[in-house]
Every structure is written in C-alpha cells, then in structure tokens.
Design goal:
Blueprint (H helix, E strand, L loop, with lengths): L1 E4 L6 H9 L4 E3 L11 H12 L4 E6 L14 H4 L4 H17 L4 E5 L8 E5 L5 E6 L17 H22 L2 E5 L19 H9 L6 E6 H6 L4 H14 L3 E5 L2 E5 L2 E5 L8 H10 L5 E3 L11 H20 L8
Parallel strand pairs: 1-2, 1-12, 2-3, 3-4, 4-7, 7-8, 8-9, 9-12
Antiparallel strand pairs: 5-6, 6-11, 10-11
Length: 329
C-alpha cells in the first residue's frame, strides 16, 4: 500500500515535485487518444516517467468519466455501430499495456458524467464541489444513449466485460472500474446508474469473475451512495477488500451522504479516514492510495498546493500504520 497520484503533470517540473513530495507510483497518460497509443508511445512515456523516479502503475482506458457525448468510445454503452471496433481496440490496448510492463488500467462506464450542483464554501473560504438533489435539474434530458432500461444497461456492461476480461486475465493487466459518481435516483436523465449503489458494485465485480476484474475504489463516491458514510463505509471497504477487488483507491472524504453532500479535504469530512486506511491494510490491499478531487483554495498554485496537503496527510497515515515505503537512496 503506497502513496500515489493521478494529477496530470503540466511539465517536467511537476514530475520532479511529485518525486520530491515522496510519490513513487503514478497513474498518468501519454498525450492523445488512448485508442491511438502504440507500444512505442507507451514505452517512451513509461521511461520518461521513470526518469524522475516514478513508476507508471496505471493508465486510463478510452472510457472516461465525461458524459457519453464527449467519450472516445461512446458506442460501447450506446450500443452503436462501432461498438465491436471500439471494444477490439481496447483489447489490443490491454495487450500493449502488458508488453510495456504497465500492470493496470482504470476506466469508467459512464453515460451522464459527474453531476454536480453549484460550488459551496468550505473551510477558510475554499470552494468545494457539491451535489444537492433538491437543486439538480430533475428534468434534464437523456443523453445520446436515450432511455436505457436498467437490465439493458447491465447487458451492455456484460457485453463489454465478456470481451475484455479474458484479454486482461491472459495478459495479467488489472482493470479497475470507477463506480458511478454520484448516486442518482433511478431513471435520472434516462438511465439507472447501476454502479451507483453498493449492491450494483457487488453485482459488477461478480460478473465475469477474474482476479483482473475489479474496482478503482473511490471512497468519496462510495460515501455518496450511503445514508451514513461514517458508520457504513468500513463494511463496504472490507467486503471488496477481502475479495481482492480493489485495484486503486481514491482517498476522498465528504460531508453528508446519499443525494446531499459536499466534497472536503480528507480530514475534514464525515468518514474516519484513519479507520478506513486500517481496513485497507487489514484486507491486504497493496496498491496506490491517492487523492482524486480537492477543494479549490486561494494562492498562486491552488491545485498543487491542495494536492500536496493531501499527499502529506496520506503519507502521515501510512507512516503511522507502518506501511510507508522505505526511504529512497
């Protein structure tokens, strides 16, 4: 279990700063459309990252958290005419990841993106993302996927998994799917977000069972689907952790819960992140612990300052748990 990051580097100095802050493991992407990444592209990028003392542990497949209209592979969940071609392309990409020595890939099965309501003021005037169902547009129209019945949604997900999971297993590349952020009531914008509940996540990981089929376990998103995140989240972590279905952790906290929450810094929310980290350790989790979102703060470099705070917080918890990587030479 070790500190990681997925924050995009703006230049080489950002990679140097990551290493200086104690990060050794990253999720990062070469430029361009992932469908177009060649083996040489991946090798060059891996070696470039490695030059800063960083290990490229994970990349993003061409299935992101954006609304389906902005996706590189929209036909997979819309069952469009290019569905098989896009799935085949992802299968070939998984094979190239294995050749390049990149052990994992994250992805989303997202149709409506990440709904949020207006930013809200948090600690010291920082501005935080929030979602209040009473403020959401309940009449927002469906996406290009149209009205999608729940079981048809599952069928399309299974069609994808049936093709890609055997390729991942034969190439020993872990596929980590992010749950739906946030939970929304069934039928919102024409879909039921089947990965927006704990039961849906359980059904998902048990489909096409494989040690290479699991989750990009976003603790903030999981909290968003619970009535009482502080009380409930530990059992959720334990269920997936004991089954070795957690391949990456987004270590984010919130205040609130299902249908009404605000994102926070890790120590400023309702979930006990120290207790959570102990459960990850108890279940044998051995991959990255990383921040995903941070509140927007003031100053000359608000993004990286806020993330640096999170890196230090995670490092302190890992050290207290006795799970911090040994010091660099």
């Amino acid at each position: 279990m070790h500190l990681g990051t997925q924050v995009p580097a703006r230049d080489d100095d950002d990679y140097r700063v990551m290493a200086q802050l104690g990060i050794r493991h990253v999720c990062a992407d070469p430029p361009g459309n992932p469908h177009d990444w060649t083996l040489d592209t991946l090798l060059h990028f891996r070696d470039r990252i490695g030059g800063f003392g960083l290990s490229l542990d994970m990349v993003q497949l061409p299935l992101s958290s954006r609304p389906i209209e902005q996706q590189h592979s929209p036909d997979i969940l819309s069952a469009g005419p290019d569905r098989d071609r896009q799935i085949d392309s992802i299968c070939r990409l998984i094979e190239r990841l294995a050749e390049a020595g990149i052990p994992a890939a994250k992805y989303n099965l997202n149709i409506i993106g990440i709904p949020r309501t207006p930013l809200e003021s948090s600690r010291g005037g920082a501005m935080s993302e929030a979602f209040r169902w009473e403020k959401a547009d309940h009449d927002a129209p469906p996406t290009l996927a149209g009205i999608l019945p729940e079981e048809e949604n599952w069928a399309r997900i299974d069609y994808f998994l049936e093709r890609v999971v055997p390729v991942a297993e034969s190439n020993r590349v872990r596929l980590a799917c992010h749950p739906h952020d946030p939970y929304t009531p069934p039928g919102y914008r024409g879909v039921t977000r089947v990965l927006g509940t704990v039961e849906g996540m359980k059904r998902f990981v048990l489909m096409r069972e494989s040690p290479y089929h699991g989750l990009n376990f976003c603790q903030g998103t999981v909290g968003e689907m619970l009535d009482d995140p502080r009380r409930e989240v530990g059992d959720v972590i334990r269920w997936f952790g004991e089954r070795k279905k957690i391949f990456n952790v987004h270590f984010r906290n919130i205040r609130g819960g299902k249908l009404s929450f605000m994102e926070t810094f890790p120590e400023d929310g309702d979930m006990d992140m120290w207790e959570s980290l102990k459960i990850y350790g108890e279940t044998g989790y051995e991959h990255m612990i990383m921040p995903d979102h941070v509140p927007t703060i003031s100053g000359r470099d608000p993004r990286d300052t806020a993330f640096a705070f999170c890196y230090g917080y995670i490092t302190g918890l890992l050290q207290a748990l006795g799970r911090l990587d040994s010091k660099a030479d």
